[in-house]
Amino acid sequence: xxxxxxxxxxxxxxxxxxxxxxxxxxxxxxxxxxxxxxxxxxxxxxxxxxxxxxxxxxxxxxxxxxxxxxxxxxxxxxxxxxxxxxxxxxxxxxxxxxxxxxxxxxxxxxxxxxxxxxxxxxxxxxxxxxxxxxxxxxxxxxxxxxxxxxxxxxxxxxxxxxxxxxxxxxxxxxxxxxxxxxxxxxxxxxxxxxxxxxxxxxxxxxxxxxxxxxxxxxxxxxxxxxxxxxxxxxxxxxxxxxxxxxxxxxxxxxxxxxxxxxxxxxxxxxxxxxxxxxxxxxxxxxxxxxxxxxxxxxxxxxxxxxxxxxxxxxxxxxxxxxxxxxxxxxxxxxxxxxxxxxxxxxxxxxxxxxxxxxxxxxxxxxxxxxxxxxxxxxxxxxxxxxxxxxxxxxxxxxxxxxxxxxxxxxxxxxxxxxxxxxxxxxxxxxxxxxxxxxxxxxxxxxxxxxx
Length: 451
Known about the structure:
3 domains; 7-stranded antiparallel sheet; 5-stranded antiparallel sheet; 24 strands; flat
């Protein structure tokens, strides 16, 4: 340790970043190079006389007798220094993701490809005739996407006979799908699903209603006379935001792991209700591949978990008989639905048992909320009937943009300014209308959620 670090908590060598470019960024924290030189000299001295330190320095500092760490850092900086603004964040995101996958979805690790080189990225830019953003290039220097395998790294969804799993495309395959057709000009695919043909794209130029470098799901306007008219479900403002937000949801458990796959259900921590010994919680997901802006058709799926406390009495065992839903759409319409069982099943609940099922719903508004209750009877006494509350849960599609202005009655504009203060409602610019739903207009309707 350097003298200035002596007062700080001790740092073990095996806890240091195993990446030369990150040593100055995170370990020395942009301190002056005198400290860097001191650390380098000290490690060189230890390596000469201590086999254990030599092994650790070789493993974690990539040192060898032929080159100093400082020279090694210079080499890395010459190669990757242009990405200094993004490298530490993206490297950390990738390491967190791989560490999580190693524990929960190990077969995905084998599908990751080694990083692309600068030459390869330059060649891709020449091939497509567009500049790739630096945050995208930086991530692909770390890992060049994944092999074309199932399950995809960017999440899955399974519902009845519908299945989606999105692969993070390597840059060569992405370049092969680069779009120049009207309605999708200068758009590079980020993901691909073999089963649905669905892709998320990144706009490499601000054209046809898109902002530069934002990511989106394309959505053909089925009501337009022009077949190239494309609406967009926006998924991120840039690659860095898009990728790191996804990784955060994965590693924090926001997205559940089901059968060694990442499922993109979102769970509101407040969407839980307990009645007696039974707890009901809900997670939801929007399916862009089954949705459209024109005509307004928004498809949602929800996954419900019913659990009886393990401390419940055996006499509390019960069976679900029916369900009741109260559904409120963003335009204020209310619908009530009753029916037997859940998806054709009548689960029996005993102490410690968990029952999960998935269902779906479609609406002509981009947002809605549902609440209701289940009706149960006790196994020991069929005459004892009771209700179990289902918490209110919201289903909200991502913001969507219409390239050409169209007066519609089923959507409400977002506030005229985005978080950066930039004008974004489409009046007087080239970006069209960014639309969504004003949930605050519905009394008690708002349930905060990260989409």
